[in-house]
Amino acid sequence: MTHESADNAVASWSRDGRWIYFVSNQTKEWQVWKVPAEGGEPVQVTKHGGYVAFESLDGRFLYFAKDLGQTSLWRVPVGGGEETRILESVTGRAFTLGSKGVYFVELNTAGTSAVQFLSFVTGKVTTIAVIHRPVGFGLSVSPDERFILYTQADQVGSNLMLVENFQ
């Protein structure tokens, strides 16, 4: 799909299946691009930074986070146009689109995470669940929007290792 000497990752489909969105640093900063699903030249979508991206269910907008960590959520018309900030704070890849709004995870200062919902109609944010453990990458909502699926980090750890006589 891509042939540039750059990092290209975090792919998602357009709703009509004609495009594949992805993030790339081919311009020396992370931006969202799209490439025709049948192959062809990539087209840059974002101009001021972008990382993970998903197209709205109606195919009108592309919603994207600015980077991998704690970031803001933005949207841009699929056909091009002005990038608009939608949410101040979203945790990395932890957002998904429903038929009536955006589900997202926000980390608060107490160290807990909240699964929240931004209504497209009212513009209001409501808390769906408070999670008392760190939430990892990824968030998904079932097609009927009755269930939320998220990654919970139960264990984090590392070890120091020593290599002896390696020469």
In short:
Helix content is 0%, strand content 48%.
Folded structure, characterized:
- By secondary structure, the chain is mainly beta.
- It has one domain (8-152): 6 Propeller (Neuraminidase), CATH 2.120.10.30.
- The chain has no helices and 14 strands.
- It has strands at 8-13, 19-24, 31-36, 43-44, 53-55, 61-65, 70-77, 84-91, 95-97, 101-107, 113-119, 125-131, 135-141, 148-152.
- It has a four-stranded antiparallel sheet with strand order 1-2-3-4, with no helix packed on it. The protein has a four-stranded antiparallel sheet with strand order 5-6-7-8, with no helix packed on it. Strands 9-10-11-12 form a four-stranded antiparallel sheet, with no helix packed on it.
- The chain is globular.
- The relative contact order is 0.11.
Task: Give the helices and strands, then pairings.
Elements: E1 8-13, E2 19-24, E3 31-36, E4 43-44, E5 53-55, E6 61-65, E7 70-77, E8 84-91, E9 95-97, E10 101-107, E11 113-119, E12 125-131, E13 135-141, E14 148-152
Antiparallel strand pairs: 1-2, 2-3, 3-4, 5-6, 6-7, 7-8, 9-10, 10-11, 11-12, 13-14
CATH homologous superfamily assignment:
TolB, C-terminal domain
At CATH level 3, the topology is Neuraminidase
The amount of beta strand, in percent, is over 45%
> Are there runs of 5+ residues with pLDDT below 50, and where?
none
